[in-house]
Design goal:
Length: 148
């Protein structure tokens, strides 16, 4: 079970919450883990500690974001769901096809180039034209999405 901690990925806010609960529980049970598998547990706990410390930084300033990308204006024809705490490229087959977005009350920055590079627009709750990127001057150019 300890070794699987390193393989967790945060895809939704619910998974993030569950992951934090598991990590917290394991942190309090680390002595038991060390007794069970001393050599492997030390290496695993080192990775666990790095993972836990690195992820706890998300609480201190990195915001979880979530967005649905649509092929058409008015949020029609779903292309892809993207979410996380870091920049994400959209699937290569969906580059340059987004015409509207739903940010689910989160703030995102959409980019024209993969790796969150190039021309970009900040989309946050209240930003006009979520439903029509042509009016934002960003129709069919999105290739990556990241946090504000």
């Amino acid at each position: 079970m300890v070794g699987s901690i390193v393989l967790f990925f945060c895809e939704t806010a619910e998974l993030y919450s569950k992951r934090r609960s598991v990590l917290s529980a394991l942190a309090t049970e680390s002595t038991m883990t060390l007794r069970l598998r001393p050599a492997a547990a030390k290496a695993t706990l080192a990775l666990f500690s790095l993972n836990f410390i690195g992820f706890s930084g998300a609480d201190a300033g990195t915001t979880y974001w979530n967005a649905t990308l649509y092929r058409d204006v008015s949020q029609n024809n779903v292309l892809q769901e993207v979410s996380g705490v870091l920049c994400q490229d959209v699937d290569a087959s969906n580059h340059d096809k987004t015409s509207s977005i739903n940010t689910h009350d989160t703030c995102v920055i959409v980019y024209a180039e993969p790796g969150c590079k190039g021309n970009h627009k900040k989309i946050q709750p209240g930003t006009p034209h979520h439903d029509d990127f042509e009016q934002l001057g960003f129709n069919d150019v999105l290739s990556s999405v990241g946090p504000c």
